[in-house]
Amino acid sequence: MNDESRQPDIEIIPKNPLARAGDVLPNIIHLLPVASRPFFPGQAVPLLMDAAAWTPTIQEISESDNDLVGIILTRGEKSELAKSEEFYSVGAVGRIHRAQSVDGQLQVLVECLQRFRILEFLTDEAPFSARVEYIKEFSGTPDDDIKSYAMAIINTIKELLPLNPLYAEDLRMFLDRFGPDDPSHLADFAASLTTANKEELQEVL
């Protein structure tokens, strides 16, 4: 494709500030299916999606008051062919920090916030939306045993970093935001680093 016929980059949702812990999450959200693997609360997820299939969903979200989307795993092989009956029931709601269309691809950056469970589909085809309930994470101060296990997991992850230095930045960001006093997010973070298949990761979610 030459420069004259190249479509311009289109910014659909501009950069947003980081989510706040006290943000109220709506009971009705739009859904974006993913086919490769589920994502966990605390993750910043860069998605590359087919613009023709998912731009209408992103535009509807941009017209709402919250820029929130539910990331949900589909049992199918391609997200753009996903049907609501193929969706798993539990996913992660996230805030879209940036979405833009580049050369027919939709680049979306989502900060995952909390688990949700689908109660009822409001639409059976894209743009998907559903009524959901949110699954509470562990809150409170973990006991000494849990803290010890958490530190052991973090130290093990540090030992494995030379095998894949790309995870070093992920670990630094995790420790900046959470740390050993947040075992729920630590478990999610550790699971996200594994090479488990999508069905196994969905069990963790």
What does this structure look like?
By secondary structure, the protein is an alpha+beta fold. The chain is 28% helix and 30% strand. A hairpin with a 6-residue loop joins strand 6 and strand 7 (128-134). Mean pLDDT is 79; it is low at 1-22.
How would you summarize this macromolecular structure in one to three sentences?
The protein is α+β, with helices and mostly antiparallel strands and 205 residues long.
Question: What top-tier CATH class of the largest domain fits best?
Answer: Mainly Beta
Look at the structure and give the mean pLDDT.
79
Task: Give a short account of the largest sheet.
Answer: 5 strands, mixed, barrel
By DSSP, the count of extended strands is 7
- SSE order in H/E notation? EEEHEEEEHHHH
Domain module tally: 2
> Which structural class best describes the helix and strand composition?
alpha+beta
What name does the CATH topology of the largest domain carry?
Archaeosine Trna-guanine Transglycosylase, Chain: A, domain 4
Salient structural properties:
205 residues; alpha+beta; Archaeosine Trna-guanine Transglycosylase, Chain: A, domain 4; five-stranded mixed barrel; disordered N terminus
Topology of helices and strands:
Layout: E1 10-13, E2 28-34, E3 44-50, H1 51-62, E4 68-73, E5 90-102, E6 105-121, E7 128-134, H2 144-160, H3 167-177, H4 183-192, H5 198-204
Parallel strand pairs: 2-4
Antiparallel strand pairs: 1-5, 2-7, 3-6, 4-5, 5-6, 6-7
